[in-house]
Amino acid sequence: MSTWSTTLHFEHLPVASSDTLPTLSLIDLSDWSLVTLVGDDKKSYLQGQVTCDVVTLDPAHSTFGAHCDAKGKMRTIFRIFNHQQGYALLQRKSIMATQLPELKKYAVFSKVDIEEGQDVLLGLCGENAQTVIDQHFPGSDDVRAFEGGTAVKIDAQRWLIAVAADHADTLATQLANNAQLATTSLWDLYDIKAAFPRIEAATELEFIPQAMNLHAVGGISFKKGCYVGQETVARAKYRGTNKRAMYQLQGASEQCPQAGEVLERSVGENWRKGGTVIAGYQFSDNQAITLVVLPNDLDEGTQFRLAEHPEALWTVQALPYSLDDE
């Protein structure tokens, strides 16, 4: 049972690598959090902190973005959208304790309040998700405000719902009709299949935005003004200094790959550190799928294995987007 619901039971939903995902599932996003920003200076303050263009963000849409340190290494990757007279940044809960104080560091000089949001976060997924969303939150926008919260389109089969705790149980019970209830691991699978980047505590301050394909999913503006880490991000684009990219790999595994684990690559007859796991999902048939940051100049036919499980080889899968997209 969730910590906020007295009636709904969210459990791990076993999925085999060959299975079709449920037509409708409701997910308790317990591993995610919101950062909320309200106040007169919220837009200008955030514009000077993050990689995406907050000034031109249409209230009807959301976008990826990153918050970097001065060297251009990412503290977090988030999805930003308009929420409750301000902005909300959806990001992994594991980095909140270290990233949020850094985002707030200079807020004392601006009219902006930055806090960890208290909303309950739900995911509605599957081919029937859009129909259910339209029934409960009429409209055509990708970001839809409703009493007590906001619904945000993530991709063709997913919506995020951020709802105040006192509305959550009632709304979730309505949305759960004909839906399979699942834990956040199912959302991980959708994210990995979509090759959406994320930062966990284990990968914080390890990579510049392009190393996780943030430019390919619309998370970097190269036309906006200055922000923290901009010099490094711009140099990676215009001088070609970035030597990494994020790839999707699949292989046999008896355990779920964890963020920060090492993936080795074959070099002749030897094995060397090849990359870092960003996110992983283990299927019920002892297959797993993962996102890994690797060198972007790998030779064709390079083999991979997890350092902790060297007996199983992994293969690179085709990304659902082009790394040339900006």
TrEMBL record:
Which UniProt key words apply to this protein?
Answer: Cytoplasm, Folate-binding, tRNA processing
Superkingdom, taxonomy of origin: Bacteria
Q: Which segments does the entry list as coiled coil?
A: none
Q: For folate, which residues are the binding ones?
A: 32, 187
> What does the UniProt entry say about where the protein is found?
Cytoplasm
User: Any keyword Cytoplasm?
Assistant: yes
Q: Which InterPro entries match?
A: GcvT/YgfZ_C, tRNA-modifying_YgfZ, YgfZ/GCV_T_CS, YgfZ/GcvT, YgfZ_barrel
State its role.
Answer: Folate-binding protein involved in regulating the level of ATP-DnaA and in the modification of some tRNAs. It is probably a key factor in regulatory networks that act via tRNA modification, such as initiation of chromosomal replication.
Tell me the protein's name: tRNA-modifying protein YgfZ
What organism is this sequence from? Photobacterium sanguinicancri
Organism lineage reads as:
Bacteria, Pseudomonadati, Pseudomonadota, Gammaproteobacteria, Vibrionales
